[in-house]
Amino acid sequence: MMARRPLLVTMGDAAGIGPEIVVRAFVEGAAKGCVVVGDPGVMQRAAALVRPLGVPIAVIDSPGEIDLAPPGALPLVVPSGLPPGLAACRWGVVDAACGAAAARCIEHAAAGVRAGEAAAVVTAPIHKEALAAAGIGYPGHTEMLQALAADGGPAPPVRMMLANDELRVVLVTIHLSLRRAIDAVTYDAVLQTLRIADAAARRFGVAAPRIAVAGLNPHAGEGGLFGDEEQRVIAPAVAAACAEGIDARGPFAPDTVFMRARDTPSHRGEFDLVVAMTHDHGLIPVKYLGVESGVNVTLGLPFVRTSPDHGTAFDIAGLGRADAASLSAAIRMARRLAAERALEVIRLGRSP
Amino acid sequence: MMARRPLLVTMGDAAGIGPEIVVRAFVEGAAKGCVVVGDPGVMQRAAALVRPLGVPIAVIDSPGEIDLAPPGALPLVVPSGLPPGLAACRWGVVDAACGAAAARCIEHAAAGVRAGEAAAVVTAPIHKEALAAAGIGYPGHTEMLQALAADGGPAPPVRMMLANDELRVVLVTIHLSLRRAIDAVTYDAVLQTLRIADAAARRFGVAAPRIAVAGLNPHAGEGGLFGDEEQRVIAPAVAAACAEGIDARGPFAPDTVFMRARDTPSHRGEFDLVVAMTHDHGLIPVKYLGVESGVNVTLGLPFVRTSPDHGTAFDIAGLGRADAASLSAAIRMARRLAAERALEVIRLGRSP
């Protein structure tokens, strides 16, 4: 078996909890085999939050040099072009320099994984307003990584998957107002989501993924009484997916389909994943039992990318009490998915 | 202490699981002190599903005669004007006669509780298409009861509350397409919901209700990037409610506010109830852990009305395996709320 390539973990927004949870995951042993992409001063400041004496940081030139870091030292690659003085930024305050630095780390990590130097990318939280203040026109990681994967050609279609131990949800729309999201629920968007979701689930080890499709309207439109998107858009896309051999079912009433898919030892899920039309239809149930275990996976990219399912938590940044559980889960998930790409034996969750 | 008045339980749609779960709740002891409003033949057919030898049914003239029913017999009042031959209707099939009968039972129960003959109304599930086939223009119980409470005057503003042991949600909009629901999220609608929710929670025994308001858009609009309803409509309504002395907070991101409000022994909720803008934002989390314990309460009516939070389940109607847990929970909740109206000592859930 060949030596495992490292995972790249970006530090996220320097004013948020990102650097702190990265250090904490490392100290807790959850980031073994990971190389952090970030600013040395920012990481040092974060290390002091986690341990009174800090944590040694080993700056290396590339992910392949991970073994040069002494035991107990956090391996760090530093992208060129980071703004100076980042470690002096104020905790919990939107700062254009932090936005620019976060974006540089993402670019650097994406280039590294695309060059084959790393097995996957795990991203700590960024702040959309800081990105915007830095003049970066992406509402989030997903859109930015999609553009970075385009190589100047057409961007690959990507979708956000949120997963925890019980439930996996793939979203048709994400960072749009609800009004614009409804407009974006098209036949093509739903069918594309079903194709991406099915391919991803198979790659993750589910031999015959059972995919439930949630409707858009209350009671999935109640036969057209409460909206016609189910009849006009969603059902035809489900039928087209079925014709392609995808086991897609629905559209089902949004308020009960997640409960039906929930998979626990005492309640076997009826489906392997649920396709949801809107950000909050999908994320409310994934997060309901607590965000600690939730992981965000970007499907459709030419590389594995995961992240925690929470944000920069500006309200507790710098206080030393951020929880690294979701980042650690994201690292575990990335490791499994990246390994699976080579070995093809990994299974997703408890699904058969 | 005066003798308790009975609760009225409507049979629901005769082709669905309503009559069966009513009998089952009675047999399981959960419907003590309840009088059923329905058709004798339909209730007899349902009783045969629950017990091989059926269950004796005692037809009485009014709820006040409940004590005339022999021990073990299900007390039943029969509204005038029920269509003939209802007990021959086919299980699981939309039938105008069943829709008309279900509506008659609701009217009869509403009249009884308004006349002071009963303490509360609990409704078994009806089928919207059967109602429509009978020419009854209400999309559901809530709207019909609202009209019945109007006495020809203006209808009282009512709101749907869904409650289980962990979470209580009050909805600004219910049976509308998502597109029309967005239009219906107005300053007046949100403020009215906050007033109704606050008054209801106080009447239910929460001395100083902490009300969280969920946003409409992803991340509650992310400062206007993903929609402006939060800034334009919801935040001003929250501010107006606060000015009236209501402890309303938000709008918060819809994907995390329900998790924050979730109240369990190991996770104390930050709020006593959540106001949600759309049907599915509110119902997805209430139902996620299973519909068995969920109860629907109509707030704003001049009487107590609860129902189970599931539908007619046409797919399993007539099979004798419907679960009465949610109806039993609805009966318990109605009994508590009705008693509280007299005694003012009942507390809702675990909230302080």
Mind summarizing the main beta sheet of chain A?
12 strands, mixed
- Order of adjacent strands in the largest pleated sheet of chain A: 3-4-2-1-5-12-11-6-7-10-8-9
Distance between the termini of chain A: 27 Å
Number of helices of chain A: 11
Structural class of chain A: alpha/beta
Q: Radius of gyration of chain A in whole Å, from Cα? A: 20 Å
Helix proportion range of chain A: 25-40%
Oligomer kind: homodimer
Low-confidence stretches of chain A: 342-352
**Fraction of residues in β-strands of chain A:** 15-25%
Any idea what the shape of chain A is?
elongated
Query: Biggest interface between protein chains, with counts per chain?
Result: A-B, 44 and 44 residues
Describe this structure in words.
2 copies of one chain form a homodimer. Helices cover about 35% and strands about 15% of the residues of chain A. Chain A contains 11 helices and 12 strands. The model of chain A is unreliable at about 340-350 (pLDDT under 50). In chain A, helix 1 packs across helix 2 (about 40-50), helix 3 (about 95-115) packs across helix 5 (about 140-150) and helix 7 (about 185-205) packs across helix 8. In chain A, a hairpin with a 4-residue loop joins strand 6 and strand 7 (about 170). The radius of gyration of chain A is 20 Å and the shape is elongated. The first copy, chain A, has a 12-stranded mixed sheet with strand order 3-4-2-1-5-12-11-6-7-10-8-9, sandwiched between helices. The first copy, chain A, has helices spanning about 20-25, 40-50, 95-115, 130-135, 140-150, 180-185, 185-205, 230-245, 255-260, 280-290, 325-345, and strands at about 5-10, 35, 55-60, 75, 120-125, 160-165, 170, 210-215, 245-250, 275, 295-300, 305-310. Chain A is α/β, with parallel strands linked by helices. The interface of A and B includes residues 175, 178, 181, 227 and 279 of A.
